[in-house]
Amino acid sequence: MTVATPERYALMLDSARRGGYAYPAINVTSTQTLNAALQGFADAGSDGIIQVSVGGAAYLSGRRVQDRVAGSIAFARFAHEMIAHYPSITVALHTDHCAPQYLDEWVRPLLAYEKGQAARGEGPLFQSHMWDGSTLPLDENLRVARELLDASLAAHTVLEIEVGAVGGEEDGHSAAIDERLYSSPADGVAVARALGLGEEGRYMAAFTFGNVHGSYKPGVVKLRPDLLGRIQRATADAAAQGKLPDCTVRQADAAPGGKPFLLVFHGGSGSRPEEIAQAVSHGVVKMNVDTDTQYAFTRGVAGHMFVNYDKVLKVDGEVGAKSEYDPRSWGREAEDSMAARVVEACRRLGSAGRALK
């Protein structure tokens, strides 16, 4: 099976942390961008993660329907069918950036759906879901995360949380680029106290270290990847000093290289290779990739249209060229362009050529 089972997904994440690499998590908005991402993973010989955002889930259901749950379920079923044609790689499906106002109409219904699947002995449609409580006070963020972690355990899925704000704009949500973009080592300890370190349900944590969504010129984004190392060390030290529950101490002691958290890197578009490498060295196992692959896909379309403008348009009363305005012609170029960018992401993160056997 090439869709990750819960056990296979756990192995993927643990292997990345132990091996010092990370998986690109590619945001997709259509079956076509899904196919491009799968092509890229296969070309790179890399396992990977495919994810849909809150806006992407609604978009997948069409303009008339605009139902995030329906769009997510339909997409996941299609994805399962297509991933089965890539036997050399393992792929996990993920829902990305569920803010508080979308919980009841998106992730909670999906978790309930997947709990029902688990009761029937089936694997979950999605392998992980993200709760983005970064706009809430930390204690409230973690209170909801605790509830969702319990639901995730019952659904046989992994939870992802975010602590600290990511700047920039995504799906209509924006945040300023300022000091609030940096989590603290104390935040890490608070997360471990509230959620454990995997023994009460597996989760990934996106602590912020200056991350910004979108695309910016050099110098705008001030990343501090060393902050992730400080958060990991502070949590491991708290466990060693008996400041965390006994079960969490055991998990921290067993964590490879003193990295108790499975970390996620958000807002990485335009980051320098050395910043990415440093973040991965501190335990990042998943890096979201959206802006760059969006551009790669659209650039393929734009290139085709500019070169063939008099064929895709009926200029001066002519008839154009059906073979050039057929969506399959420019769609193939867009898929190839996006797939190449996915291969690049796999190489930068070190997952290329390391697909699980």
From TrEMBL:
Gene Ontology, cellular component aspect: cytosol
Positions of dihydroxyacetone phosphate binding: G214, G267, G268, S269, N288, V289, D290, T291
PROSITE patterns reported in the protein's UniProt record: ALDOLASE_CLASS_II_1, ALDOLASE_CLASS_II_2
Bilayer-crossing regions: none
Active site (UniProt): D96 (proton donor)
Pfam family, one: F_bP_aldolase
Cofactor note: Binds 2 Zn(2+) ions per subunit. One is catalytic and the other provides a structural contribution.
Residues involved in Zn(2+) 1 binding: H97, H213, H266
Catalytic activity, reaction form: beta-D-fructose 1,6-bisphosphate = D-glyceraldehyde 3-phosphate + dihydroxyacetone phosphate
Cofactor: Zn(2+)
Class of this enzyme: lyase
Record pathway: Carbohydrate degradation; glycolysis; D-glyceraldehyde 3-phosphate and glycerone phosphate from D-glucose: step 4/4
GO molecular function: fructose-bisphosphate aldolase activity; zinc ion binding
EC number(s) stated in the UniProt entry for this protein: 4.1.2.13
Function statement: Catalyzes the aldol condensation of dihydroxyacetone phosphate (DHAP or glycerone-phosphate) with glyceraldehyde 3-phosphate (G3P) to form fructose 1,6-bisphosphate (FBP) in gluconeogenesis and the reverse reaction in glycolysis.
Protein name (Swiss-Prot/TrEMBL): Fructose-bisphosphate aldolase
Organism from which the protein derives: Bifidobacterium xylocopae
